[in-house]
Amino acid sequence: MSKVKLLMVIPSLQGGGAERVMVHLLNHLDRDRFSVHLYVEKFEGRYVEEIPDDIEVTGPGDRRKLAKLFFLRDEIRRIKPDVVFIMMLPIAAIAVRMARVGAVAVIRETESRPADQFKQDRMAMLVNRLGFRLADHYIAPAEGTKAYLESRYRLSAEKITVINNPVNIKEIHAAAEGAPPFGDGSFQILAVGRLSYQKGFDLLIRAVAELKNLDWRLRILGTGPLESELTDLAESLDVGDRVQFMGFQKNPHALMRASDLLVLSSRWEGLPNVVLEGLAAGVAILATRCPTGPEEIITPGIDGELCQIEVESLTENIQSLGEAADRRAALVEAGNHRIRDFALPRIIEKYEQYFYSVADRSDC
User: Fold this and answer.
1) Which residues, 6+ apart, have CB-to-CB distance to 187 below 8 Å?
2) Using the 8-state DSSP alphabet, how is residue 139 labeled?
3) pTM above 0.85, yes or no
4) Which of 276, 301, 312, 290 is nearest to 204 (CA)?
5) Cα(112)–Cα(146) distance, integer angstroms
6) Is the pLDDT of residue 364 over 50?
7) Cβ-based neighbour number of residue 68 at 10 Å
8) Which CATH superfamily is domain 4-166+344-359 in?
9) What is the number of alpha carbons within 13 Å of residue 81 lying toward its C-beta?
10) Runs of H (alpha helix) within 177-307
């Protein structure tokens, strides 16, 4: 049985959700069936140490702009992959076409941000669009993302396949095991993500500041450009002593398990890994009905709760959940069942079947 040769492409190995999905694939694709190579523009970030030793890693080094494109073209000619799997770097699809070795270009895209939030200059936008148009197939992590891609890039629905993000449930259970409670008897709220406009932490801080007759604490995990602005906001609302910014945490799952409520306050997402990991860690979840993902993960009142992307709705739902421990426990129990639909082995198998299909390898 001949192996399917894959070239995986990603800009860096920083600590985002897309990078986490890539690391899962690199570690768990069946080596008896796949030969796996990695192209990364900047070999840096928290996930570097998790790259398996059997993966050949290549990158453009200090080359700039157009030189990177030609370097990737030459690497594709050298490796001669069956499939080039591209994350967050659609220009790579142009290199696939330039290489002319018959490789199939697949873009995996999580984007769902509103058009008014794009900051690209005109040239970057045109190159981005060209990359999308030149790809052969696409993967979206959620049905909502698929619809977004169809609309924004005018892609054919038949070429877009939905494969959800994988969750290593066993790993998260082990990381969360034995998490000690915070111990002060207050209602413990947790939020996780990059400190950016997208994640809506400004909405969350304003929301918790409006809570009534509830002794609460909010911990926010993550780093980003808005840290000082968010800290100032908490102080201005007179809740600075209740809001703690904890930065990057290597093991957020223990903090999830020790919390009473995990809140996703995002304005947009792809398929939010933090919600999936919260389900696996065993914490009640409240998420905004942002595009896209939360509404495809959570059934309100069963395995989590959903609210509008606004302060009042966040406050109302946090207040209600803060006063109902039995309700939170029921959500956690149902969440333990729901997360199995995203279990790592199940999603890896879907990716493997997908790669066989697009490579047209019936012998695999």
Assistant:
1) 214, 215, 216, 217, 260, 261, 322
2) E
3) yes
4) 312
5) 9
6) no
7) 19
8) Glycogen Phosphorylase B; (3.40.50.2000)
9) 31
10) 201-208, 227-236, 252-258, 273-281, 294-297
User: In the chain, where does the domain assigned CATH 3.40.50.2000 lie?
Assistant: 4-166+344-359, 169-342
Length of the chain: 364
* Tokens 């981005």 sit on residue: 128
Q: Which helix (DSSP H) or strand (DSSP E) does residue 247 occupy?
A: strand 243-247
Rg for the chain (alpha carbons), in Å? 21
Q: Tokens 């977004």 appear where? A: 148
Amino acid at position 316, single letter: E
User: Is domain 169-342 given the CATH code 3.40.50.2000 in the classification?
Assistant: yes
Higher pLDDT, 312 or 126: 312
CA 99 to chain centre: 30
* Low-confidence winner among 1-5, 121-125, 339-343 (lowest mean pLDDT): 121-125
Residue type at 310 in one-letter notation: E
Please name the amino acid found at residue 49. E
